């Protein structure tokens, strides 16, 4: 796809907007890896690595992990062979410094970002969604006890794994994550708009409808067309 050019997609949106849900579906559809900075931090925490333990103090408070640590971690991931044809970035970049570092790293390899879809969801919906989110411990499949519940309570439909609630999904921490989003990440909307890569999509529709629009936006970008 993308005329043989590697395709890098940056998923934008507030906490709970559906970045992970949509990135995973897109990853299956395009056969490109989903690179989620939050998932990598959580995996490190699960394995009690120094990186995981360091990230925990920021994540628990709903703040951002420092740029230098996050940038090194994601760049290492993007440098692996499975990202040679591109990747779907979910949760990174999240600051202008991270966006800049990503652009520079890709440019050094003659690459660039193809499209930056923005999932738009109101704050109240975000708080409600995150209160109901459940994740499989084994395969990371995503559920919502209100909008997409598992067939058996507390168990993953796909692998039978135990479902858990993220520690940072309590309403108090979610409010801080939203505050941090508006302060530090929302400026990226202007950044990608200025680079003619931004595609705003309404995220408050059924998951499949959002995915269809997302795939259409990616197809336009991959065909070399202007996304706006
Ligand atoms: P991260 O894991 O990236 O969390 P986040 O950005 O807060 O986003 P979420 O994962 O909460 O939401 P999402 O948009 O993926 O929504 P989801 O698909 O799950 O980061 C966690 C922490 O790590 C940060 O706070 C920070 O500390 C650190 N970190 C990570 N990246 C960093 C970086 N680059 N720099 C510095 N620090 C970093 O959906 C949410 C729920 O809604 C689910 O239950 C889902 O089933 C449901 N849902 C999804 N779509 C729909 C729909 N269309 N309709 C109804 N319900 C839906
Ligand atoms: Mg996520
Ligand atoms: Zn599972």
Question: Mind explaining what this structure looks like?
Answer:
The longest helix has 16 residues, at 207-222. Strand 5 (133-136) and strand 6 (142-144) form a beta hairpin. The protein is globular. The protein has a domain at 7-132 and 187-215: P-loop containing nucleotide triphosphate hydrolases (Rossmann fold, 3-Layer(aba) Sandwich), CATH 3.40.50.300. The chain has nine helices and eight strands. It has helices at residues 19-30, 37-46, 50-61, 67-78, 96-108, 123-132, 171-185, 187-194, 207-222, and strands at residues 7-13, 34-36, 86-90, 113-120, 133-136, 142-144, 163-164, 198-202. It has a five-stranded parallel beta sheet with strand order 2-3-1-4-8, sandwiched between helices. Strands 6-5-7 form a three-stranded antiparallel beta sheet. By secondary structure, it is an alpha/beta fold. 47% of the residues lie in helices and 16% in strands. The chain binds BIS(adenosine)-5'-pentaphosphate, magnesium ion (MG) and zinc ion. The site of magnesium ion (MG) has 6 residues, from helix 1.
């Amino acid at each position: 796809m993308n005329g043989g050019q590697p395709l890098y997609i940056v998923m934008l949106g507030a906490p709970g907007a559906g970045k992970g849900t949509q990135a995973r579906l897109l990853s299956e559809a395009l056969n490109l890896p989903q690179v989620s900075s939050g998932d990598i931090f959580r995996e490190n925490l699960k394995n009690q690595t120094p990186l995981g333990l360091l990230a925990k103090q920021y994540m628990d408070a709903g703040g951002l992990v420092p740029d230098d640590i996050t940038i090194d971690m994601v760049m290492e991931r993007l440098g692996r062979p499975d990202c040679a044809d591109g990747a779907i970035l979910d949760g990174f970049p999240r600051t202008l410094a991270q966006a800049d570092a990503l652009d520079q790293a890709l440019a050094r390899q003659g690459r660039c970002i193809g499209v930056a879809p923005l999932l738009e969801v109101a704050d109240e919906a975000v708080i409600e969604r995150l209160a109901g989110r459940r994740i499989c411990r084994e395969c990371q499949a995503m559920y919502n006890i209100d909008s997409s519940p598992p067939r058996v309570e507390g168990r993953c439909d796909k692998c039978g794994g135990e479902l858990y609630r993220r520690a940072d999904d309590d309403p108090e921490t979610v409010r801080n994550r939203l505050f941090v989003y508006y302060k530090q990440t929302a400026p990226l909307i202007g950044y990608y708009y200025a680079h003619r890569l931004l595609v705003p999509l309404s995220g408050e529709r059924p998951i499949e409808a959002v995915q269809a629009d997302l795939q259409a936006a990616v197809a336009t970008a991959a065909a070399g067309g202007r996304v706006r």
